């Protein structure tokens, strides 16, 4: 497992690294410079990113939230003080774990596991949502194609669907693809 630790303080980074000592087969990369951070993280391609910010300013938090949005990785962020706005912004940015006043070596491993599990759960939800949206868009396209066939040929809804299905089967394509082609052709011809 590749783990990137982002911390401008070598002392705090060593606390995090100590908490990871029990992990087998790990590569730890400590990044202490904010300049070029996203590029460096992309180069390392870590499995998990642990960011310790101590007591960051709003600008620094926003900069790290941009890092979180740019990477599709589990991210745990450690800060010294709680801030409701920062917590909400971290959730929006995709931070998997936002830990307030929790930098202790004994807590790092459980927090790492939490960040990975929350990231994976959120990724599954996003995939399910994308799939549902895709199916809905296909269903709407098929319904629109059926309406076109019903209006132009005087077919009933079951007949229009049967026509789309017949064409899909004869051309070895999906019904949604045939429906999209019909709707596109209809739009090009400009008939209402």
Automatic annotation (TrEMBL):
Gene3D superfamilies recorded for this chain?
Answer: 3.40.50.2300, Winged helix-like DNA-binding domain superfamily/Winged helix DNA-binding domain
Using the record's annotation, list all stretches that form the Response regulatory domain.
2-116
Pfam families given in the database record: ANTAR
Q: Which UniProt keywords apply?
A: Phosphoprotein
Post-translational modification 4-aspartylphosphate, affected residues: 52
Q: Where is the ANTAR domain?
A: 122-183
Family annotation (SMART domains): ANTAR
Record's protein name: ANTAR domain-containing response regulator
State the organism named in the record: Alteraurantiacibacter lauratis
Q: What is the lineage of its organism?
A: Bacteria, Pseudomonadati, Pseudomonadota, Alphaproteobacteria, Sphingomonadales
């Amino acid at each position: 497992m590749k783990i990137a630790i982002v911390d401008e303080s070598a002392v705090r980074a060593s606390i995090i690294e100590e908490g990871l000592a029990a992990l087998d087969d790990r590569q730890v990369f400590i990044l202490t410079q904010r300049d070029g951070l996203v590029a460096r993280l992309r180069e390392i391609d870590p499995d998990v990113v642990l960011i310790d910010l101590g007591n960051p300013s709003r600008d620094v938090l926003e900069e790290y939230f941009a890092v979180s949005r740019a990477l599709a990785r589990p991210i745990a962020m450690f800060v010294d003080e709680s801030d409701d706005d920062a917590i909400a912004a971290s959730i929006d940015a995709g931070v998997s774990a936002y830990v307030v006043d929790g930098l202790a070596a004994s807590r790092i491993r459980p927090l790492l596991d939490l960040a990975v599990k929350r990231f994976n759960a959120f990724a599954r939800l996003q995939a399910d949502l994308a799939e549902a949206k895709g199916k809905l868009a296909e269903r709407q396209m098929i319904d629109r194609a059926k309406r076109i066939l019903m209006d132009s040929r005087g077919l009933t809804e079951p007949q229009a669907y049967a026509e789309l299905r017949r064409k899909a089967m004869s051309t070895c394509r999906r019904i949604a693809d045939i429906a999209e082609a019909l709707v596109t052709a209809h739009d090009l011809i400009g008939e209402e």
